[in-house]
Write a structure and sequence with these properties.
It contains five helices and ten strands; from the N terminus they run H-H-H-H-H-E-E-E-E-E-E-E-E-E-E. The protein is an alpha+beta fold. Strand 2 (about 100-105) and strand 3 (about 115-120) form a beta hairpin. The chain is globular and about 45 Å long. The relative contact order is 0.15. One of its GO terms (cellular component) is cytosol. Keywords: DNA-binding, Transcription, Transcription regulation. This is Putative transcriptional regulator. One of its GO terms (molecular function) is DNA-binding transcription factor activity.
């Protein structure tokens, strides 16, 4: 997770507290959560102590292991009736090398969840994602520039004004190979089989 100093600290503190709360409510030991998420126990300890800055991929693994959504962990998940999220409360969960960003705008509670993201990628930036759980689907709409979308050795160009639907249950990436900024919105739908 990256962003401005105070934003990162605020989000990391909320993440630390919420992961610990979810883990304890589910009566999961650090060892069990570590095993389920495929993350070292030491890393989980550091996250819960607010000493680590977990990546989006790591938050996805932890949330899936506890059957909650990333939105639950960063506290932008839906609430009964209407849940308004102020601009200052929208977390930035990725920062590119040149200042690009990924913000989780809103999401539903897990394990079956929907998330809404806004991405900005500066020239040369790339985000690589491990496979999400089976059945995860991403819907993207490019508002500016041309997004490169890659999955299983395939490379697709998604131009300004165009949309794409991608199964995200395999490793994939988003890249900006142009000389201009790329801006896109993304909805993620994740359904867990019962």
């Amino acid at each position: 997770m990256t962003g401005t100093g105070s934003d990162v600290e605020r989000v990391n503190q909320a993440v630390a507290e919420r992961i610990k709360t979810f883990r304890k409510n589910q009566k999961l030991s650090l060892d069990e959560l570590s095993r389920r998420a495929g993350i070292s126990k030491g890393m989980l300890v550091d996250i819960e102590r607010c000493l680590a800055n977990p990546s989006i991929a790591m938050l996805c693994k932890i949330s899936a292991a506890m059957s909650v959504s990333v939105a639950d962990i960063v506290d932008v998940a839906e609430q009964p009736s209407v849940h308004l999220i102020a601009p200052r409360d929208i977390p930035q969960l990725w920062e590119g090398e040149s200042g690009g960003s990924a913000r989780l705008l809103a999401g539903t509670s897990g394990p079956d969840m929907v998330e809404l993201w806004r991405w900005e990628m500066h020239p040369g930036e790339r985000y690589t994602s491990p496979a999400h759980p089976e059945g995860t689907c991403e819907l993207l709409h490019v508002e500016q520039g041309t997004l490169i979308l890659g999955r299983e050795g395939q490379r697709h160009e998604v131009g300004c004004g165009s949309s794409a639907i991608m199964r995200a249950d395999a490793p994939h990436y988003y890249a900006n190979e142009s000389g201009e900024k790329v801006v896109f919105t993304m909805a993620v739908s994740e359904r867990h089989s019962r």
